[in-house]
Amino acid sequence: MTEWFEEQLHPGLSQRLSMDRVLFREKTEHQDLVIFENRIFGRVLALDGVVQTTESDEFIYHEMLSHVPILAHGSVSRVLIIGGGDGGMAREALKHPGISEVTMVEIDPSVVDLCRDHLPSISAGAFDNPRLNLVIADGAKFVEETDARWDVIIIDSTDPLGPGEVLFSERFYRGCKRCLTPGGILVTQNGVPHVQGEAVSNSHQRLSPHFDDVWFYVAPVPTYQGGHMAFGWATDQAAHRAVSMSTVLERFRDAGFETRYYTPEVHVASFALPANILKLLA
């Protein structure tokens, strides 16, 4: 008899994935973790009953949350990732030859270890890259205490529930601002606006006191039901968001790697928000 994983996404909305083969299931110090195989999405990682990533569509999320800020900035040397225990965000950031170091701060070492063992295609060797500095720590405390600075900070968090809630707070955003170099960019995972509009509105309100340019960009990620996913964008250099297509194209060509979803055209278009999301920012 087929076992099913049911994720209660929102009141009145859930999704079910067949657990065709369970690879690992355990309650760690920080969260309930399960890794299973599904015939459509491949291997799936879920934490506390919420799907975090799947082999089938992870590339959309990881490419858009990494390449957009890095190529918009144009001269990134150091990147900080908060979360990202599956290694996919580090994998994409490390594709940029001009980046000298990627620091990844993950609170739960079990997530890293289990993803290395059961989801190796997502990290694709990133954990063995000498340019990756893996730190096991609370991301919120890390940005308040570190003396280091980064050109781009990527918040690859869970939704604003449980351990991930603090990563959507104004105090955390203020700590991130402190850790950016002048003209640096902060990007965040910000949910699906059609069913999580409050998350977008709250992040916009909490980021705005600390950055001159606060916006969002979008991409469709099939696993995250309800429409386009939103990514938060915050910087003091407004020109980064207005970078021309020709400039992004040149930077992408110079970087010299292939993508499965990201293109310079998608990069520029992703910042054009529909009216229903614009209303959330009013």
Structure description:
This protein has ten helices and 13 strands. The protein is α/β, with parallel strands linked by helices and 282 residues long. It has two domains: 3-54, Spermidine synthase, tetramerisation domain (Spermidine Synthase, Chain: A, domain 2); 58-280, Vaccinia Virus protein VP39 (Rossmann fold), CATH 3.40.50. The strands form three sheets. Strands 9-8-7-10-11-13-12 form a seven-stranded mixed sheet, with helices on both faces. The chain has a four-stranded antiparallel sheet with strand order 3-4-5-6, covered by helices on one side. A two-stranded antiparallel ribbon has the order 1-2. The protein is globular. The N and C termini lie far apart (50 Å).
CATH fold naming of the largest domain:
Rossmann fold
CATH architecture of the largest domain: 3-Layer(aba) Sandwich
CATH superfamily of the largest domain: Vaccinia Virus protein VP39
SSE succession: EEEEEEHEHEHHEHEHEHEEHHH
Radius of gyration: 18 Å
Distance between the termini: 50 Å
Q: Can you tell me the overall shape?
A: globular
Count of distinct structural domains: 2
Which regions are unreliable across 5 or more consecutive residues at pLDDT < 50?
Answer: none
CATH class of the largest domain: Alpha Beta
Largest sheet: 7 strands, mixed
The chain-level structural class is alpha/beta
SS elements, strand count: 13
Number of helices: 10
Beta strand %: 25-35%
